[in-house]
Structures are given as C-alpha cells and as structure tokens.
C-alpha cells in the first residue's frame, strides 16, 4: 500500500495498527518460547552464574550502541521496511542456529553469538515499533493501548516459558527453534498489508541536509527540554543497574541455587508475567491518569519490596519466591505504561524515532556492567545476599529521586509542539 504523510492519528490508522499489533504478538510468542529454551540450555550446559552474566552483558551491548544510531535511521527511512527487514533477520539467525544444532556444531559460545545477532536487530526493531505508536493511535487512546499492549505482552511471556518448559521435557531444542521461524510469517503478513504513515519533518530540516550526529544530538536536546525527563532517565539507568541481576540470574537462582527444574523455572516465570498482566490491567481500567510520576514512584518502591522478599526466601521455598516475584513484576507495567504515555504525548511525531532510541539506549547503558559483575558477585557472596543488597539500594535510590530531584515533574513537562531546533 502507498505511503501516507500525516501528523495526526485517525480511526483508519488505529485499525491498521491493531492488525499490525496482532501479528507482532504472534511473533513475540514464538520468540519468547525460543529465548526461554536457549537461556535454559545455556544455564544447564554451563551451570555458571558468570556465564549467564557474560551472556546478558554481550546481548545487552547492541541495545546501547545500535539503538543510538537506529533512532536517526528510524526517522529517516521507511519504518515499515525497517520492521520487515529486522523481523526477517531475526528469523534467519534462528534458522542458522537450527542447522548448527542439527550438525552438532553447537556450544555455549555459538548459541551466545546467535543471541547477540538477534539482539542487534531487536535493537532496531523495538524503537521502530515504539515510534509508530503515536502516529497510528489517537492521543486519547494512548494510555489505554499502552496498558493493553502490556497485558497482551505479559500474557505471551506467561504462556511462552510454560510452553517452552513443557517442550524441553520431550523435544530436542533444535526443533523448538522452528517455532520462532514460523512466527515470523505471522508477523510479516499483516505488516505487508497495512499502511504505516510517514512523518513530514520540520521545514528547517527539509531546507538543508542534516548530519547523522546532528540528528542524534537533537534527540538529546529534546530530552533535556522536558522538565523532569533527565531525572527520570537517570533513575531508569540506576534502576536497571540494580534490577537487571534479578532477571539475568533468575535461571541460576531458581535452577542451581534453589535446585528447581525447568518446570519450576517456567512456572515462576509465569507468575511474574501474570503479575505484569494484573499491573497492566490496573492501568488500563482508567482512561487517563493524573499524577503519573507519583504513581510511578509508588510502583518502584513496590518493585523493590518484591525484590527484597525474593532474596530473603529460604532454600527451595518456591512459594515465597513466587510471592516476591509477583510483587516485583506487578509494579513494572505500571512504571512502563505511564512513562511511555508521557514520552508519546510530549515528543514531536517526527522526532519519536531518535528520542525512543535515545531513551532505550540510555536506560540500558548501565546494564552490561551490572550483568557482567552480577555473576561473579553472586558466586562470591551468595546470590540471595546480592539480591537483598540490590533491593535495599533500589528502594533508597527511589526515595532520594522522589524527594531531591525534579523527577516528580516529568508528567508536567512542557509539551514540545513549539520545539526549537538546536543550531
């Protein structure tokens, strides 16, 4: 279908987005099944928290470096073509891994290499999808649609690990990989059928050619002009540093430290996702939320509490672990949904790509360091002690940002409709 230039989302663009969104959810389900299987395979094959840390470290790096550059590409190029291309490349990487397993050429490092390749293309795909949301969804539907998307994603991440955990019990991993390849078709067919509007850039940018670095800097200037946004980014960076070991080391924490099997790990992963669904439903119930920053602070403190409970759980007490993971995960969609709504409302449509990319890159910038040191620290002081220290630190940092920065002003930041480009 032909490309359309527009700056206002309509009923038609919203219908097109729903079709696209359903296809992406199908692809997400396939990816979640395969990613769980790969991480579990690495966990059992290596039996090392350090190897898991290295895996996370190397897979996160593209989210920083690639995403920084991806933002400008997203605003310059056809977003529909970018989405199709990156989906295809992820499926191709998984297909290559299948043949490596088939000819017994697999190893922890080979699997890690494929994970890194997939991460590179995900680092382009994710901000591209985020950038088309405010173009295709009317403003009054943004908050609710963000919540619904979180509910659907959480439901998929609930089902995915459970399905993967069951399949691992009676199917070789190389056959599980085909699920991801098949799900690519589910995503690409709706994408081919819809129209994704292109955005007219500012008149100044049309009058002259702008450099790649200029446009990257412009994303930074936009962030700095929204009151409270920089403080929120800093909180996101520090928060990701403290929270990432909970996700990175969870397979080791449950399967090795607490001696749980693949089913226990998949069930506890499902508990986390069910909690995320509940949190997202809470946000979706109300059309518009006031005092978003205050709600996010409360949710962050809730996340820290769940993190602490998880670390305090006694050996193999999966009920308490599940309770802690539920509380931790419940707050995540509340934070993410409200924040994405703020970002979508306040950033100009033709700058969404670079700002979303800058946001993701800054938010993830500290995670490789955290991931790299988390494994050795867990083996040195004990993973439960590590979780307790990190959880307490997260709650203290949340309080410091709440009372000693302009973090609470982020949802009141001035709308950038009159944004002035930097010289």
Which labels suit this protein?
423 residues; mainly alpha; globular; disordered C terminus
Outline the secondary-structure elements:
Blueprint: H1 11-46, H2 49-76, H3 79-102, H4 108-136, H5 142-170, H6 173-193, H7 203-207, H8 212-225, H9 229-248, H10 250-257, H11 262-285, H12 292-312, H13 318-346, H14 352-364, H15 367-381, H16 383-404
Helix pairs in contact: 1-4, 1-5, 1-6, 2-4, 2-8, 2-14, 2-15, 3-4, 3-6, 4-14, 5-11, 5-13, 9-14, 9-15, 9-16, 11-13, 12-13, 12-16, 15-16
Structural class: mainly alpha
How far the N terminus sits from the C terminus, by CA atoms, comes to 37 Å
Please summarize the sheet with the most strands: none
Q: Which radius of gyration do the C-alpha atoms yield?
A: 21 Å
Q: How much helicity do the residues have?
A: over 70%
Order of helices and strands: HHHHHHHHHHHHHHHH
Report the strand count.
Answer: 0
Task: Describe the structure in brief.
The chain is built from 16 helices and no strands. It is mostly helical and 423 residues long. The longest helix is centred in the first third of the chain and has 36 residues, at 11-46.
């Amino acid at each position: 279908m032909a490309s359309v230039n527009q700056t206002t989302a309509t009923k038609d663009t919203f219908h097109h987005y729903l079709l696209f969104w359903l296809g992406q959810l199908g692809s997400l389900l396939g990816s979640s099944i395969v990613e769980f299987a790969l991480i579990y395979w690495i966990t059992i094959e290596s039996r090392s928290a350090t190897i898991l840390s290295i895996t996370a470290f190397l897979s996160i790096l593209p989210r920083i470096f690639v995403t920084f550059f991806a933002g400008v590409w997203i605003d310059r190029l056809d977003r529909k073509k970018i989405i199709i291309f990156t989906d295809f490349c992820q499926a191709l990487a998984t297909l290559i891994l299948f043949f490596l397993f088939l000819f017994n050429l697999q190893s922890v490092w080979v699997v890690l290499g494929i994970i890194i390749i997939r991460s590179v293309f995900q680092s382009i795909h994710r901000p591209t999808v985020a950038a088309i949301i405010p173009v295709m969804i009317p403003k009054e539907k943004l908050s609710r649609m963000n919540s619904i998307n979180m509910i659907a994603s959480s439901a998929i991440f609930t089902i995915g690990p459970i399905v993967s955990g069951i399949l691992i019990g009676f199917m070789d991993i190389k056959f599980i990989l085909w699920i991801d390849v098949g799900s690519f078709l589910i995503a690409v067919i709706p994408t081919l059928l819809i129209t994704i509007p292109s955005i007219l850039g500012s008149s100044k940018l049309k009058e002259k050619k702008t450099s790649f670095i200029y446009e990257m800097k412009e994303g930074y200037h936009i962030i700095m002009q929204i009151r409270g946004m920089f403080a929120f980014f800093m909180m996101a960076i520090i928060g990701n540093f403290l929270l990432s070991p909970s996700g990175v080391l969870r397979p080791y924490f449950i399967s090795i430290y607490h001696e749980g099997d693949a089913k226990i790990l998949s069930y506890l992963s499902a508990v986390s996702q069910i909690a995320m669904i509940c949190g997202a439903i809470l946000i979706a119930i109300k059309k518009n939320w006031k005092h978003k920053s205050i709600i996010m602070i409360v949710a962050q403190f809730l996340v820290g509490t769940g993190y602490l409970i998880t670390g305090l759980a006694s050996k193999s007490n999966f009920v308490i672990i599940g309770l802690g993971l539920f509380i931790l995960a419940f707050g995540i969609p509340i934070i993410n949904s409200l924040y994405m709504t703020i970002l979508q409302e306040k950033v100009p449509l033709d700058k969404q790509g670079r700002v979303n990319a800058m946001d993701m890159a800054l938010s993830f910038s500290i995670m490789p360091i955290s991931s790299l040191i988390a494994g050795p620290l867990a083996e040195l002081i004990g993973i439960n002690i590590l979780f307790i220290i990190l959880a307490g630190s997260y709650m203290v940092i949340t309080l410091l940002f709440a009372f000693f920065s302009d973090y609470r002003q982020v949802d009141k930041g001035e709308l950038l409709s009159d944004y002035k480009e930097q010289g």
